Amino acid sequence: MLIQILGSGCAKCRQLYDNTLEAVKQTTVDADIQKVEKINEIMKFGVPFTPAIVIDGVVKAYGKVLSVDEIKGLLT
User: Fold this and answer.
1) In the annotation, is 68 catalytic?
2) Which domain holds residue 8?
């Protein structure tokens, strides 16, 4: 599973990344987690706001920081 966190590196983006790491750890899902910080790359996903989480190429949420439990729900 490929999980991408889209964001410029702001505090909310970092929190979403950290929450994603914890969610993956708690679910033992085999996932590659990547930060996407370049605006040109972020624009390719068509999200109007960051942070955003993309799982296997599908935007699952944007514009807010998901909790660890919310992310775990996306992974299972």
Assistant:
1) no
2) 2-75
